[in-house]
Every structure is written in C-alpha cells, then in structure tokens.
Amino acid sequence: MASPALGSEPTDTIEPARGAASGTSAAMPWAARIALVVVLAAELMDTLDQTVILTAIPAIQTSLGAGPAAVQWLTVGYALTFALGLITGGRLGDAYGRRKVLLIGTAAFTLASLLCGIAPGPGTLIAARVLQGAGAAVMIPQVLATLHVTFAAETRGKAFGLYGAVLSVGASWARPWAAWSPRPTCSDCPGDRSS
Fold first, then answer.
1. Is the pLDDT assigned to residue 38 strictly greater than 80?
2. Contact indicator for 132, 110 with CB cutoff of 8 Å
3. pLDDT above 70 coverage of the chain, percent
4. Whole-number Cα distances in Å, 164 to 43, 65, 102, 168, 169
C-alpha cells in the first residue's frame, strides 16, 4: 500500500534534449547542469566545514582556550541541530519551494560560518556552530531533492555519482587545506605558545 505522503512528491523532471532517441543516453540539458553545479557547491560547503572543524580543533583549543567540553560541543552542537532539523528542512522545501529554501539555508549557513570565523570565545563559536547546523539542515535536503527531481532516469545516476564524488573529494581535500591554512595567534589567549 502506497503512503499518502508519497503522493504529494513533485514528479516533474527536466526532459532530455530534443532529438534524443528513446532508450539512448541523453545529454544533460544546460539548466540541469547549472542546477547540478549549484547544489553540489552547497554540499561541498557542508562537507568541507565538517572536515575542517575536526582538523582545526587543536588550533581552536590554543587560540580560544577551549576546554574538552567546549571542543565536544563544537561537533555535537552542529550534529545535533543538523539531525533534528533535517526532516523539517526537507518538508520546508516541499512546502515553500526547494530553490527558496536552499537559498535561505545557504545564507544561514554562510552567516554562521562568518560568525564562527570571528568568534571571540568558545561560547560564541559553539552558538555559531549550532546555527550552522540549522542552516545545513535546511540546505542539504534541498540538494538531494533537487537531484532527484531535476534529472531524468537516464542522467540521475550520473548526478548522484557526482554527489558521491563531491562528498569524497570534499572530505579528503579539507584536511590538507586546513592543515596548511595559517593558524591564528593570540598573545592574550590562555595556552597560546606562539608568542
């Protein structure tokens, strides 16, 4: 028996290019390619953020004087907010439109990233990470829904394959990038050995 909730899912897809024979591999239309780049960029932001924060923990402890409990809340606060808001974020996209909700989620995530970057102490950083988790919870469901709805069956596998590649590349690229990035120094911060 089909679920009544599934009956309200959008079913429109971008049609294959004209002239593509039935049963042959159709090229992705330009609109679909642009949508793919946009949603994969949003996913890459989230993946990079998750990996960079784990790599930057020693620098955060040194520069902000964050103790073990604060360090745990940096990751748990994000993950908890993300997990709690994920289903709601997906439903918001269904109700108000994926594009609008993706933009709102991306704006919230970006603003929270800025707040993380200028956080003067561990408490502010934890609050910004919780806000980041909420932004990601609104943003990420739109990525998956857009991939599912935008691409026809012939190209959907390629789109989800690229999604998986972005997850892998983002996670593997972020560690070296975070390790090479300049570390903040603060002569007034407790535990700072840079001076």
1. yes
2. no
3. 75
4. 10, 36, 19, 6, 9
